[in-house]
Amino acid sequence: MMKVDHSKLRRLEILRYRTFAFILFLMLIIGLSIFTISMSIIWPADRTEALFDYRINNNINYQVHLFPNNLYPENTLEMGKQYPTEIVKNIEVEFRNNLSVSKNAFIDYDYEITAQINGTYSTGSNRDNTEIWTRDFTLVPKKHGKASRIKNNTIKETKKIDFAYYNQMVTDYKQELRLNIDASLIVKMTINIHGKVGHTTFTEKQELELDIPLNRAAFQISNNTPEQQKETVYSTGELHINYPFFIAALIFLIISLVLVIRFILNIRKINRKTEFSIKLNKILKAYGEVIATTETTPNYSKYEILDIIDFIDLMDIQNEMRIPIIYYEHILDTEGWFTVVHNDQMYRYILSDTTKKIK
């Protein structure tokens, strides 16, 4: 006869205690995992922090070159004067852009110089100037440049503007169409700057511009360039994650949650009433006064065993002999024996769970 441990209640208590202890351990792992995940995430600061600053200085210098003449002993006139149109040959312009950064930076930039004739015509009673003609020119095609780990970067380009050529174009337009337009030549240097300090980037677009009137008796050049610009770059408040710690903690968290769910399901399974427990409780409730339960394995080898099909028949035998019924759980939660022993005979009723396969 197979010998088993029949201390059911004690076993259940030990199992529940171990389960509780293990779940407590898992909850500790879950708490540590959540703490590690939170520590691996660097949240944006409530206040931004100044990382670095940069300054941009723009400058345009030019000289006006004249045709040979008897009026001006010198052939070059400096900036900021009135210039007689008839004897101006060309204008030599130097564009200069300087970027100064408070920390070492990587700079990537491009620039080009263009020109546009902009003609306007006065219409209406208010004599408003309306654009009537434009003509675009590329003086310097786009150029690219890079600089690494520097605090200062200067872009400089010099170009001669053929003033007489553009002025003649306006003269021809006015004569051909017999329109008295106002015209000027807009010379512009466009610079695109992309900078990087550490992991932080910044971009700037600068436009250095001269406005040169055309087809007038005399003209004065206007410089429409912002000379200086200063900017401070602040922390963007981005979310940073330490991915190795984050992923490891997340894996531990998922495994712990899965184990907790499995143990909870096992506890529910243990506490759930089976067909066997329902039948046993019904019998004990109805006839418990004449039933004695034992946890010691009885020695039935010396008895002639007579199996009883119905428990009521066993109760009739008990009533007739006035001998208590001994209950012994042969297989835990699966099979129990109710017996009445008289002399060398044992009357046995077997209660079993038909939903379980008895080995």
The coarse overall form would be rod-shaped
How many separate domains make up the residues? Answer: 3
Low-confidence stretches: 1-6
Helix content: 25-40%
Name the average pLDDT. Answer: 86
Number of helices: 5
Q: State the separation between the terminal residues, measured CA to CA.
A: 13 Å
User: How large a portion of the residues is in β-strands, by DSSP E?
Assistant: over 45%
C-alpha Rg, in Å?
50 Å
Element-by-element helix/strand order: HEEEEEEHEEEEEEHHEEHEEE
Largest sheet: 8 strands, antiparallel
- The count of DSSP E runs of length 2 or more, i.e. the number of strands, is 17
What does this structure look like?
It is built from five helices and 17 strands. The protein has helices at 8-40, 163-177, 243-271, 275-287, 311-321; strands at residues 41-42, 50-66, 76-77, 83-84, 88-123, 128-161, 182-197, 200-214, 218-219, 222-223, 228-234, 240-241, 291-294, 304-307, 325-331, 335-342, 345-352. The strands form four sheets. Strands 2, 3, 5, 6, 7, 8, 10 and 11 form an eight-stranded antiparallel sheet that branches. The longest helix has 33 residues, at 8-40.
